């Protein structure tokens, strides 16, 4: 038996003992990206923890690619539905667009772009991938084709909250997923730029091991996230 499988079996055995009563108990390990935490888990995990006080919820926020089974997690939330062996994917959130946003002050200072070429007169806060350690290229869509745009990038980060702050301070244009922008308390200050050219991303899925539902503590979180009546 592989080490990851042995550890899973051990955790499930411990959880079965702790679940001898009616209240679900045990440990649930979930990995997800920063945007998935902001968009999905952040809105529900406090109520979940209050409802199931005997559960220990371990949240690992990481934008890099992680193997669910090899890394010992019970659940994961990511874009797409590409699966590793022994993993199930369930739809959590529909496809979304990655928007370009700036403040009115930024646009007044550098002009409002009308075409992708106009972005060369602006600056972009760049995103650096954690695991690959390279900058995330800016890709827009025009006539059904992807086009890459190279802009001056005086600021580089790996966090969506930092990117939002850059927009607020009128320092640069930032790429922010449309529903994340809508969650901002001052979202009206985030002015869409070149909206017809925005890129669309695939739906967000909940991933879990094929037999994870055998553990009651994992099942209750799966049901909670999928919105099933409990």
TrEMBL record:
User: Which residues are in the LysR substrate-binding domain?
Assistant: 22-226
Which domain of life, per UniProt? Bacteria
Q: InterPro entries per the record?
A: LysR-type_TF_proteobact-type, LysR_subst-bd
- Pfam families for this protein: LysR_substrate
The transmembrane segments are none
Protein family = Belongs to the LysR transcriptional regulatory family.
Protein name as catalogued: Transcriptional regulator
């Amino acid at each position: 038996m592989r080490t990851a499988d042995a550890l899973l079996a051990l955790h499930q055995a411990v959880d079965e003992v702790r679940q001898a009563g009616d209240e679900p108990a045990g440990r649930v390990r979930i990995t997800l990206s920063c945007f998935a935490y902001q968009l999905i888990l952040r809105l529900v995990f406090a109520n979940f923890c209050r409802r199931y006080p005997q559960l220990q919820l371990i949240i690992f926020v990481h934008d890099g690619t992680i193997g669910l089974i090899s890394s010992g997690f019970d659940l994961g939330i990511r874009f797409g539905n590409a699966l590793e062996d022994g993993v199930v994917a369930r739809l959590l959130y529909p496809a979304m667009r990655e928007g370009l946003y700036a403040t009115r002050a930024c646009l007044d200072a550098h002009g409002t772009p009308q075409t992708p070429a106009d972005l060369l007169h602006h600056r972009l806060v760049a995103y650096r991938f954690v695991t690959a350690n390279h900058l995330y290229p800016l890709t827009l869509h025009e006539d059904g084709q992807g086009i890459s745009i190279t802009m001056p990038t005086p600021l580089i980060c790996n966090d969506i909250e930092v990117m939002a702050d850059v927009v607020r301070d009128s320092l640069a244009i930032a790429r922010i997923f449309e529903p994340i922008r809508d969650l901002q308390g001052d979202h009206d200050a985030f002015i869409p730029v070149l909206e017809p050219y925005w890129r669309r991303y695939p739906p967000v899925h909940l991933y879990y091991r094929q037999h994870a539902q055998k553990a009651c503590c994992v099942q209750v979180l799966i049901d909670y996230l999928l919105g099933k009546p409990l």
